[in-house]
Design brief:
The structure holds 2 protein chains of 2 kinds. Chain A is an alpha/beta fold. Chain A is built from 14 helices and 9 strands. A 7-stranded parallel sheet of chain A has the order 1-4-5-6-7-8-9, with helices on both faces. The longest helix of chain A is centred in the middle third of the chain and has 25 residues. By secondary structure, chain B is of the alpha/beta class. Helix content of chain B is 54%, strand content 10%. Chain B has a 5-stranded parallel sheet with strand order 2-1-3-4-5, with helices on both faces. Chain B is elongated and about 65 Å long. Chain B starts with a helix and ends with a helix. The chains are: A alpha/beta, B alpha/beta. Chains A and B meet through β3, α7, α9 and α12 of A and α4 of B.
Chain lengths: 343, 218
């Protein structure tokens, strides 16, 4: 019998396993629901600020048979906030989000202070990882980061940022280099605190927004700098990119993560065909997870497996109103398929 | 030698397509200096260029970053030409549209794109921005007597807000005064129907067609 950690590691090594693991990394890929908060007595927004509560809520998603990992934090604003953006912590339904930017233009990047990982919510995340690490030996712990383009476009107004990629190209690269260094510092601190896997979500760096040229120039380049820095520490990596991939498969294939994850607009069969040899994670519709019935989730899960997804996960962050019976239906179905020997 | 009207219109259009935010100002000034009507410069020059940019976006030759820069060029040209419009030129029959990203979400790239496209297509836009309190959609729509309310979100956690706006409109007995269009990556045609919205579009180009159909505007 494989532990959750062993099964996931075998997947990264592309070895044979009994069945695909059921993973929801956290971060942008939210795994927390209101029902889960009620069941374990820890709620947002408090859990964003307190390591003990963050750890408890994160572990609840595993303990209550939703997913086979434990992940923190529950948002993608930690990096941006530590870099000076103003955020609201949201509510028990809404995730934290940026309300005021730190700078107006890429030319102001030198005014930004480097992230202090031992202060603020960065420290909350690191402490939560240490708590989880002490209490769990067999479950993979996933530390989450916002990707370089997403952090860069959270510290300043995204519309200005996107335009300046072209208009102030050289300075935009300096800014991106600085941002990537900051994210890497947070990643290294998470690794030191004990994560097994780092998941990076870069929803603002999509092929649809940037097109192939800028996707290559800004997403692929800085993501790989970040990944290379993380890999030195022998930690596994997952990269999640949002949106349609058709125009950027060639560029995407250069991203050096252990696994690639997509949202529900991407066909897993298509991704497998266009990204040969890669570990693919995905992509049970979060819309279905919130609004459909468990039977539908089971059939979507089966469909992902059939199409070759190596890791089964929600396609995006869960809506907090998703019923637990739906969320649990993914793992239930995977165990059921294993029992049937249908894998 | 002075350029012909056609040459200048073509130049305005090309400036927009090629994102020439500064050159477009010079061309627009020259167009006015030659005594040509500002309205033609807008419609057959700037808007023509923006429509071409939108076609290129539809064909996946252009991407969001490109369209944003094209629209900057268009607005730079508009700033020059608009003051020269006759006082009563157009305007009265423009359908009014209230647009925003629903509460809890700040992702507004898609919304901005739809706003630009609808603006170009001749709609009068009232942009509430992002993270918009739900009541603001209703208050603004009543205030300006809007034909259309457009709501967008990129997050599953916030899509419920669209449904709540519609429910509030029903409660107030004014649902039928407005058409409602929704969009954003977690939104589908199915969700649109479930919450009782009138229209859904998968992208900003499609949004123009849907909006025109909804309010019967050409």
């Amino acid at each position: 019998m494989l532990t959750e950690k062993q099964r996931l590691e075998k997947i990264f090594r592309q070895e044979h396993v009994d069945r695909p693991p059921c993973i929801c990394p956290g971060g942008m890929m939210n795994m927390i629901t209101m029902e889960l908060m009620q069941e374990c007595g820890v709620t947002w927004p408090d859990a964003h600020l307190d390591a003990e509560q963050m750890a408890k809520l994160a572990m609840a998603a595993y303990e209550r048979d939703c997913f086979e990992n434990i992940g923190v934090p529950f948002c993608m604003t930690v990096e941006a906030e530590e870099l000076g953006a103003e955020i609201t912590l949201g509510t028990n339904v809404f995730e934290p989000h940026v309300v005021k930017y730190a700078i107006e233009s890429v030319v102001d990047w030198e005014k930004l202070k480097p992230i202090d990982v031992h202060a603020g919510r960065a420290k909350v995340v690191l402490d939560a990882i240490e708590i989880i690490k002490k209490r769990n030996k067999t479950v993979p712990i996933i530390g989450n980061l916002a990707g370089p383009v997403s952090v860069a476009s959270s510290v300043m107004e995204p519309v200005h940022f996107y335009k300046e990629l072209r208009k102030r190209n050289e300075i935009a690269h300096q800014y991106m280099t600085f941002i990537t260094d900051q994210i890497l510092a947070f990643a290294e601190a998470q690794i030191k605190a004990g994560v097994d896997v780092i998941a990076i979500s870069d929803p603002s760096g999509t092929g649809e927004i940037l097109g192939p040229k800028f996707f290559d120039e800004f997403v692929v380049k800085y993501m790989n700098i970040l990944l290379d820095g993380i890999k030195k520490h022998n930690v596994r990596t997952i990269v999640h990119i949002c949106g349609q991939m058709k125009s950027v498969y060639k560029e995407l294939s250069k991203i050096r993560s252990d696994a690639l994850s997509f949202d529900s607009i991407v066909s897993i069969a298509d991704a497998k065909k266009n990204l040969p040899g890669r570990v693919i994670m995905g992509n049970v519709s979060t819309y279905a997870l919130e609004f459909a019935q468990p039977e539908k989730i089971a059939s979507l899960t089966k469909y992902c497996v059939k199409n070759g997804a190596n890791i089964i996960s929600p396609a995006c962050g869960l809506g907090t109103r998703s019923p637990l019976k739906n969320v649990r239906a993914i793992l239930d179905e995977l165990k059921h398929l294993e029992g049937e020997g249908g894998l | 030698m002075a350029k012909s009207k056609e040459e200048l219109l073509e130049a305005l259009s090309v400036c927009v397509v090629e994102m020439e935010e500064e050159e477009v100002v010079d061309v627009a000034n020259e167009f006015i200096a030659e005594g040509y009507p500002a309205f033609d410069g807008i419609m057959d020059g700037l808007v023509d260029g923006m429509n071409k940019a939108s076609d290129l976006y539809d064909e996946e030759e252009y991407f969001v970053t490109d369209v944003l820069l094209c629209s900057d060029a268009m607005y730079a040209g508009l700033d020059v030409l608009k003051p020269h419009l006759p006082v009563d030129a157009g305007g009265q029959n423009k359908p009014k549209v209230v647009i925003g990203v629903v509460e809890g979400d700040t992702h507004d790239i898609g919304k901005n794109l739809v706003k630009i496209m609808l603006d170009t297509a001749g709609f009068e836009m009232y942009d509430l921005g992002r993270d918009v309190p739900l009541d603001n959609f209703i208050d603004k729509a009543i205030e300006v007597d809007a034909s259309l309310i457009c709501m967008s979100t990129l997050m599953t956690t916030t899509m419920e807000g669209m449904k709540i706006v519609i429910e509030k409109l029903i409660e107030k007995g004014i649902r039928d005064r407005f058409k409602i269009m929704v969009g954003g990556s977690p939104i589908s045609k199915k969700y649109t129907d479930e919450i009782g919205a009138d229209g859904y579009s998968i992208n900003a180009v499609e949004a123009v067609k849907v909006a025109k159909d909804l309010v019967a505007f050409e």
